[in-house]
Design goal:
15% strand, 7-stranded parallel beta sheet, alpha/beta, binds NADP nicotinamide-adenine-dinucleotide phosphate, two-stranded parallel ribbon, 10 helices, Rossmann fold
Length: 260
């Protein structure tokens, strides 16, 4: 009997990560489900068993060294990995100086250090067999800077740049890399930030997580480009963001996002 492929998804307990886990299980993957909330992961693992997937809940806080060691150990113990989905993330509200430093530091650890360490660990398993893939959930925020979102934009830009650079090294080995850059997506992300969804963006800007993940997986499976931007409206906005003069972008961002 052929072995099922194995994927590790971080932030699998809700939103985009939970949808990735379900869609990968439907596609025949076994899963390592990583997040802090072990109970939610265990419930998801039982649900995925209905697709015949072997799913293991790995409870870990990826902002800590201990949590990262737990996730790395889960990978090494499996001894193989076909896909890593670096998805865990969060946002903050308020200016850099007005938010607690610990929160800003946790964002750097989750969006940068965790992605760096888990990707490195994954590649130790993928490179010898010259097979596998890394999808990192960045954001359209990676293409802009915005007042009130300083480190969010900066860390998402790091994820995108990291993925683009990594693809240059890994493409010749047959290992695929994608930076998924969604816009506003209905998940728990904005609730956790106590951010009013209705006021934050007009309805045409909202995507559903199933569309975001399906677009990502199709592009990944078809060997598409490194950057994946779900939704025509966001492909147009990113094009504009890359081409309008910097001083207009600065004015807009300060007017739209500054809340203090
Ligand atoms: N929703 C959007 O509008 C949007 C747009 C662009 C990009 N994104 C990106 O999409 C990714 C997924 O977010 P989402 O929208 O699906 O939000 P979500 O529903 O809030 O999910 C976030 C996930 O990350 C996990 N997580 C948070 N902190 C963690 C930590 N310290 N250690 C381990 N896991 C942690 C959460 O699980 P636990 O609480 O159980 O740990 C949860 O599973 C993020 O990287 C986000 O930046 C979202």
């Amino acid at each position: 009997m052929t072995q099922r492929p194995l994927a590790l998804v971080t932030g699998a307990s809700s939103g985009i990560g939970a949808v990735f886990s379900r869609k990968l299980a439907e596609r025949g993957y076994d899963l390592l489900l990583v997040a802090r909330d072990g109970e939610r992961l265990a419930t998801l693992a039982s649900e995925l068993a209905t697709f015949g997937a072997g799913a293991t809940a790995v409870s870990a806080d990826l902002t800590t060294d201990e949590g990262l060691a737990i996730a790395e150990h889960a990978m090494r113990a499996a001894g193989r990995l076909d896909l890593l989905v670096n998805n865990a993330g969060f946002g903050t509200t308020g200016s850099f100086a007005a938010t607690p430093l610990a929160q800003q530091d946790a964002m750097l650890r989750l969006h940068v250090t965790a992605v760096n360490r888990l990707t490195h660990a994954a590649l130790q398993l993928m490179k010898p067999v010259r097979r596998g893939g890394i999808i990192t959930v960045s954001s359209v925020a990676s293409f802009v800077n915005s007042a009130g979102n300083v480190n969010y934009c900066a860390t998402k830009a790091w994820q995108r740049s990291f993925s683009e650079g990594l693809s240059l090294e890994l493409e010749p080995l047959g290992i695929r890399v994608q930076a998924l850059c969604p816009g506003f997506t209905h998940t728990e992300f904005h609730q956790r930030m106590a951010f009013d969804q209705k006021k934050s963006a007009p309805p045409w800007m909202w995507l559903d997580a199933a569309t975001v993940v399906e677009t990502s997986l199709r592009q990944y499976e078809n060997g598409g480009p490194v950057i994946c931007i779900p939704g025509a409206q966001y492909r147009i906005l990113v094009f504009l963001a890359r081409h309008i003069p910097l001083w207009i972008k600065r004015r807009l961002s300060q007017r739209v996002y500054t809340r203090e």
